[in-house]
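Comment thread on ticket #2218

A.B. wrote:
> Attaching the input chain for the structure job we discussed in standup.
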Amino acid sequence: MSVAPRRVPFAMNEARVLIAGGTAGVGLATAKRFAALGAPHVTINGRNAERGETARMAVQELYPACKVHFVAADSCVTEQAVEVGRRAEELMGGVDVLVNSTVSAYPYPTLFHKIDINDIQGMVLSQVMPHFLLARAVMDGMRARENGAIINIASDAGKVTTPGETIIGGLMAAIMMFSRALAMEAKRSNIRINCVTPSIIEGTLTHDTVMGAEFSAKLFSKAIGMAQLGVVNAEDMAELITFLASPAAAKLTGQAISLNGGISAA
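C.D. wrote:
> Ran it. Output below, let me know if you need it in another format.
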């Protein structure tokens, strides 16, 4: 009779956390939440060095016991994503948790026939490559330590067909299936991978962009009216993300969890 291995999850006050897209919105709220829960190290990654240092200082001042680092890089470029992983390992002595909270440069719904064909390649690369590349960049270290958690942020657009979300829906579905398949591979090394799929998140730059365009504003205004449990904000996202990294979720992997206030039951 085969026996399942006994696994010991890392405690939150031991977690060394790398957050891609950590300079604002969900990523920054998540950095603060990990620090509040006692994480000894948090490294945030983003493209803008000035904004990144401002974010790093904000978290550091709030939680002086946590060592907060910033690595400037574009994580959709292979060489830079590899460097993010290397620097995070160097700065923190390892990466226990990876949160992929990068935001595409094309966040708002647009009908497919109105999308400039010259924009499509950039949409694909900027949305999915950070999730693929950074997971690979930290995987060797997590496998060697036989411990780790990866939380990818996608969207309900990958679960529910919506006019105007043809490309973004396909990309979100790709991130979800990537997360699920990787979870089945990585469980052998005690690495858990889950995905969080919000609909709209108020108080973020993406929310403001979406609500500033006529087509997407009409689409999401209707969705907001369906959020009878309340519209999700960045702090709500941070609570779920940190739960998924915690010992309380030690047996949870391969899931794509909708956090949308009741907009859908996708």
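A.B. wrote:
> Thanks. Noting for the ticket: The CA atoms of residues 176 and 233 lie 21 Å apart.
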